Amino acid sequence: MHDTTLDRQLHRARVVSSVAATLISLACGTNYVYSAWAPQFADKLHLTTTESNLIGLSGNLGMYSMGVPIGLFVDHRGTRPAVIAGSLLLGLGYLPFSAAYESASGSVALMCFFSYLTGLGGCMAFAASVKTSALNWPHHRGTATAFPLAAFGLSAFFFSLTGTVFFPGNTSAFLMLLAIGTFGLSFVGFFFLRVYPHTGSASSSSAAYHPVPSSGGGSGGPGLSDSQRLRRTSDEAKSLRSGRSSGGFPDVEPGMSPTARNHQNQNQNHTAVPTTSAAQAVGGGGGAAESSTSSRGASPFGRTDDVEAAHHHSSSYSHPPPATSDEPQDVDETSSLISSASSLPGDVLVQSSIDMDRSHRVDIRGWRLLRNVEFWQLFAIMGILAGIGLMTINNIGHDVNALWKHYDDSVDEAFLIQRQQMHVSILSIGSFTGRLLSGVGSDFLVKIVKASRSWCLVVASFIFCIAQVCALNIYNPHLLGLVSGLSGLGYGFLFGVFPSIVAETFGIHGLSQNWGFMTLSPVISGNIFNLFYGTIFDSHSTQGAAGDWSCADGIDCYREAYYVTLGACGLGLVVTLWTIHHQYLTRLREDSKGTAED
Where is the composition biased (Polar residues) (predicted)? Predict the structure, then answer.
């Protein structure tokens, strides 16, 4: 009964944290609403399409270029500091745009800087929300991360719809909405975003673990032979030893890396003592746990003893107590392969299946990541496909203006704004759908079909190809929704599954920093495709008497740009199929090697 109550409490807490992660992600994807206000902003400040694209690209640069240091920060310091910093940057980034629009003046360089801040803030908060979801639901990672990823894709729709309903045709008020809304959502979510430990029941553990007989002795602990004993790296061992305070709860937040924990706990005692149960932590009781966590504002849960601590614990009693399932399992970067639940008193349980989740067996990061062939394959796929999607996402507003002004030259500004926001909403809904489908679908592929998650990237490539063909052949602006909808769907499929692929390929422990490296790719490709689009559009544009720029050539204003992206789609499809084949051969070699070692 006690175990069931604890499980319910922890499950409820993880659900609340997941809702908070989704709420935060909803504030982080506002870079993709840029097309809803960019044409009017450019007209008011007399900017060319290329200058307008530079401002939009600066937001993308902030979102993607700082992924590595932000990932390192999240991995080493936990998720919550990144959220509060991100919320401040989002608010500070959008406020100057509203002021610049009101005054009809502003430096392009300065606007690029503030746009960069919005991207940087979104990147920080989003990285934290995704990692929290991955840590809280390790056995359903694809589905768990799909929700914040989907909310990120839905962000543009949410703000675009809100602006259409409450501030129709008012670009200045819409920019103020972005400033207040992004800050408010992420700031509120901060208070509920936490990483929680996991409990395992004896029944569930027995299916995946078997007890090691306690007849053996030696330094390794009773029942563990040299071949059975699990070893940790020196960094992990040191961090875990230093992580045990006198109360059994290190003064750290779950989700930090071994280095960060070691740094924070280097002056603490190394004596292992019995830990307070997770039930006490949930209820707010228990001296050391309560004081250490509440003083820092970190997770209210303490950490469990690791392998070494469990051994010391069991050897310090003449009659060791039975391990109970209410002890939380560690969920951060030093997650043990030892279960905290036992069917017999004093037994240490070792996982029986060698083919456990690859993301917890593999830890590739840093320079090792850059020397890995699979990293460069995925880097290329991300760059090609994300760049294609970003070109349409950042320029759908210009597509709308070009087609409508050529189709019906009597349309007014309010009508064009409404159409721009409509297509931004279509893009956002498509992205939301793609992220959700690819996240859940990738879990289905792996668990049911026993296929690679990377097949979702093939789907994304095909969707992008169809979108480019539509963009090259649609003259009627009423049909432009096919371009925006398919582009959003393909972009969502790409980003919905990619974090899970990165975690599965290189390990969950360095997910944030590895994802940061991966998102450097769209910085390169996005700049190339968007600047090329701007150059093509400007070559067909003329400057009016008031200083504003416009193009009346319809589809010819941008058609050449989509020929280039169509060719890039074909290249992306080829690279994706090659990557799947390479991964298949690599896994076969790993399985053969594992069988030979057995």
Answer: 259-276
For residue 282, give every residue at least 6 positions away whose Cβ sits within 8 Å of its Cβ, in sequence order, or none.
6, 9, 10, 13, 300, 301
Same domain, 89 and 153: yes
Please write down the long-range contacts of 1-9, taking CB distance under 8 Å and 24 or more positions apart. Answer: 2/279, 2/326, 3/199, 3/201, 3/324, 3/325, 3/326, 5/279, 6/199, 6/278, 6/279, 6/282, 6/326, 7/199, 7/201, 9/279, 9/282
Domain boundary among 324, 355, 386: 355
Helices H / strands E in the chain, number of each: 23, 5
- Answer yes or no: do 189 and 207 share one domain: no
Residues 212 and 176 in one domain: no
Do residues 56 and 191 both lie within one domain?
A: yes
Dig out the tokens for 277 from the structure: 């149960």
By C-alpha distance, which of 443, 393, 441, 401 is closest to 418?
A: 401
Is residue 459 assigned to a domain? yes
- Nearest by Cα to 21 from 96, 132, 99: 132
Note whether residue 596 is domain-resident. no
Same structural domain for residues 397 and 260?
Answer: no
**What's the start-to-end Cα distance of the chain, in Å?**
40
DSSP state of 195: -
Domain boundary among the residues 355, 386, 402 is at 355
Is beta strand 549-550 parallel, antiparallel or unpaired with respect to 542-543?
A: antiparallel
Give the pLDDT of the chain (598 residues) as one tens digit per residue. Answer: 566 887 788 888 888 988 999 999 999 989 888 988 888 898 888 888 889 989 988 998 888 888 778 877 887 888 889 999 999 999 999 999 989 998 888 889 999 999 999 999 998 999 899 888 888 887 777 678 778 877 887 888 899 889 888 888 788 889 999 999 999 999 999 999 888 876 554 334 434 444 444 444 444 444 444 434 444 444 444 444 444 433 333 334 444 444 444 444 444 444 343 333 333 333 333 333 333 333 333 433 333 333 333 334 334 433 444 444 344 444 443 332 223 332 322 222 223 332 345 556 677 877 888 888 888 999 999 999 999 999 999 899 999 989 998 888 888 888 888 899 899 999 989 888 887 788 788 778 878 877 778 888 999 999 999 999 999 999 999 999 999 999 999 998 898 888 888 888 888 777 767 877 888 888 889 889 999 998 999 888 887 776 677 788 889 999 999 999 999 999 999 999 998 888 778 777 766 766 666 5
User: Are residues 521 and 457 part of one domain?
Assistant: yes
**Angle value at C-alpha 54, between 175 and 30, nearest 5 degrees:** 35
Q: Are residues 190 and 210 in the same domain?
A: no
Distance (Å, whole) CA 220 – CA 137: 32
- Rounded to whole angstroms, what are the CA distances from 134 to 155, 340, 501, 586? 20, 21, 12, 25
CATH assignment of the domain containing 190: 1.20.1250.20
Within-domain flag for 496: yes
Count of domains forming the chain: 2
Structural domain of 245 = 202-355
In a domain, 186, yes or no: yes
In DSSP terms, 198 is beta-bridged to: 329
